[in-house]
Write a structure and sequence with these properties.
Two copies of one chain form a homodimer. By secondary structure, chain A is an alpha+beta fold. Chain A has five helices and eight strands; from the N terminus they run βαβαβββαβββαα.
Chain lengths: ~180, ~180
């Protein structure tokens, strides 16, 4: 089974939120996430296509390792998420081991269900609004892509973005 | 304030436990600890005098970083201990980041209070019995050493050991 997803810039969030409701979509959650990404002391995660982050979300926290993507088509990768009691102290421990924070991604995330598609609207600090559409448990890539891109089209969104928020923030910092 | 401590091999644990009670000592705790020590992916902890371990103890668990010793006389060092929810999964995450387990130290630890001195008797898997005496909050090193070594002497223990259990286990493995 595949997960097919696409992300696009969202210049008019209010208009699109209204459209989603008009299409029969319903809001299923709202959350605030603060992700601190770390640099490895001796590996270049940008080269190895890995990531390490501490997420703080609504009083809970996790440390997450993401392995390299497993193929070129999808975003499939190992994701190992471990709950934490004390994210600040674990961050300090990572510093002592030579890890360094490279960027903090802060976002307000709103989740919707539109038919069988999951839609996420993120307001990312320093980057603006984005909309993501995801078709879960597809058995056909082309059919999944058609549905995902079809909804993007219906919502009038054409500036697709394949880079992660972390990549976008780091590239912005380089400018 | 100083913490003065010494450790010695304990060839006759039963006899010494009896002596401690005869000296007015009382048992204050018993615990079982399982410590997994990790090798850093790009630093030799043996050279930098650091350590990283995950401790599992009576259903609780911690990850602990120990910094280099701060002077030659005492064992003073930074110790950053962070509670964990899921030690196995965090161990797996360390593996993904290139850390490797180097040794597991398993011990049954019994703590006593003898006057103002803390006495610990450890039964360490693969190494045998050890006794540690510690004088906390000393304001005079010589006076602390005298009290600590005085009790060692009273208990008939003369094989002092400065190496950690981890060092002893690793050296034994090299033989």
């Amino acid at each position: 089974m595949l997960e097919v997803e696409a992300k696009a810039y969202l210049p008019e969030p209010e208009r699109v939120m209204t459209s989603i409701i008009e299409l029969g979509g319903r809001e299923i959650y709202f959350t605030v996430q603060r992700d601190t990404y770390y640099r490895h002391p001796s590996r270049d995660f940008a080269v190895t296509d890995e990531a390490l982050r501490i997420r703080e979300e609504e009083g809970r926290s996790f440390i997450t390792y993401k392995g390299p993507k497993l193929d070129l088509q999808t975003k499939s990768r190992e994701e190992l998420e471990v709950p934490l009691v004390d994210p600040q102290d674990l961050g300090m421990l990572l510093l002592r081991l030579g890890f360094e924070p490279v960027a903090v991604v802060e976002k307000r995330r709103r989740g919707y269900l539109v038919g069988t598609l999951e839609v996420t609207i993120d307001e990312v600090k320093g980057l603006g609004y984005f909309l993501e559409v995801e078709a879960k448990n597809c058995d056909d890539l082309e059919e999944g892509k058609e549905r995902v891109l079809g909804l993007m089209d219906t919502l009038g969104l054409d500036r697709l973005e394949r880079r992660s928020y972390l990549e976008l923030l780091l590239e912005r910092g380089d400018e």
